[in-house]
Design goal:
Number of strands: 3
CATH class: Alpha Beta
CATH architecture: 3-Layer(aba) Sandwich
Organism: Stutzerimonas tarimensis
Function: Required for formation of the rod structure in the basal body of the flagellar apparatus. Together with FliI and FliH, may constitute the export apparatus of flagellin.
Order of helices and strands: EEEHHH
CATH topology: name from scop
Number of helices: 3
Shape: globular
Keywords: Bacterial flagellum protein export, Protein transport, Transport
Radius of gyration: 17 Å
Strand content: 15-25%
CATH superfamily: secretion proteins EscU
Family: Belongs to the type III secretion exporter family.
Number of domains: 1
Largest sheet: 3 strands, antiparallel
InterPro entries: T3SS_substrate_exporter (IPR006135), T3SS_substrate_exporter_C (IPR029025)
Helix content: 25-40%
Length: about 100
């Protein structure tokens, strides 16, 4: 969510792990607050970036994010997954610490 000259603005993305993330909700003011309330209720991480929200708010609901934003959105999704202890399918998780490995 971000503060804009006209008030608050929020967007929500959905990602299935297979296709590009899609815009699932967007709104200003009261609708933005409702989007954030639902996110908090479901413990969805919230990321604030005014420029990114401005760009994504130009999309229509159901649109995939533009390819130019893949890396930015991927970094945000990866961090959100990390916060929730999730990893992509096939990812084994962090490497074991070398401190715990037996010596020669």
């Amino acid at each position: 969510m971000n503060q804009t000259p006209s008030g608050r603005q929020a967007i929500a993305l959905s990602y299935d792990g297979q296709q590009a993330p899609t815009l699932t909700a967007k709104g200003d003011d009261e609708l933005a607050e409702a989007i954030l309330a639902i996110a908090r209720e479901h413990e969805v991480p919230i990321y604030e970036n005014a420029e990114l929200v401005r760009l994504l708010a130009q999309l229509e609901l159901g649109d995939a994010i533009p390819e130019a934003l893949y890396r930015s959105i991927a970094a945000i999704i990866a961090f959100a997954w990390y916060l929730k202890g999730k990893y992509p399918e096939g990812f084994a998780g962090p490497a074991p610490s070398p401190v715990n490995e037996p010596g020669p």
